[in-house]
């Protein structure tokens, strides 16, 4: 059986694949982003989708559902004013208005447990509609 990390506050578990996929993104740069979802039946946070290294931020935003919550991490690469290549990892808590109240509550209470498992996140963005997580916001926060 795969390893899982228990989140004490909600009784949810974070599947080991979440941490291993995150480490592949962070250290090996094989993923540009990862989308996570909660499976209420199994009480597991699992990987919903991974974006290949060549994919961009618009691919991530397009993969988020309009009517359900998700978590996502995005590896933002950029060049500083003094021409240094940098990378910052964003954690996105996606809770669109159209999602069910139960889902919003479950994702809100489970977020910190997942964040603790994903070591190395620089910034967090919470969004209820696409304008709250626009690429301009990501660029501004990373500077």
TrEMBL record:
<dbReference type="GO" id="GO:0015629">
    <property type="term" value="C:actin cytoskeleton"/>
</dbReference>
<feature type="domain" description="ADF-H">
    <location>
        <begin position="11"/>
        <end position="143"/>
    </location>
</feature>
<dbReference type="GO" id="GO:0030042">
    <property type="term" value="P:actin filament depolymerization"/>
</dbReference>
<dbReference type="GO" id="GO:0003779">
    <property type="term" value="F:actin binding"/>
</dbReference>
<comment type="similarity">
    <text>Belongs to the actin-binding proteins ADF family.</text>
</comment>
<dbReference type="InterPro" id="IPR017904">
    <property type="entry name" value="ADF/Cofilin"/>
</dbReference>
<dbReference type="Pfam" id="PF00241">
    <property type="entry name" value="Cofilin_ADF"/>
</dbReference>
<dbReference type="InterPro" id="IPR029006">
    <property type="entry name" value="ADF-H/Gelsolin-like_dom_sf"/>
</dbReference>
<dbReference type="InterPro" id="IPR002108">
    <property type="entry name" value="ADF-H"/>
</dbReference>
<protein>
    <recommendedName>
        <fullName>ADF-H domain-containing protein</fullName>
    </recommendedName>
</protein>
<keyword id="KW-0009">Actin-binding</keyword>
């Amino acid at each position: 059986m795969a390893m899982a990390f228990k989140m004490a506050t909600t009784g949810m578990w974070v599947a080991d694949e979440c941490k291993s996929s995150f480490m592949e993104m962070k250290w090996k740069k094989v993923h540009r982003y990862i989308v996570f979802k909660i499976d209420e039946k199994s009480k597991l946070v699992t990987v919903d989708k991974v974006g290949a290294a060549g994919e961009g931020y618009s691919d991530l935003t397009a993969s988020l559902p309009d009517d359900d919550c998700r978590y996502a991490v995005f590896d933002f690469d950029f060049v500083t004013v003094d021409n240094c290549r940098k990378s910052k990892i964003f954690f996105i808590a996606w809770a669109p208005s159209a999602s069910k109240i139960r889902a919003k509550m479950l994702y809100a209470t489970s977020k910190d447990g997942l964040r603790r498992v994903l070591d190395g996140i620089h910034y967090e963005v919470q969004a209820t509609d696409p304008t709250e997580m626009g690429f301009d916001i990501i660029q501004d926060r990373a500077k």
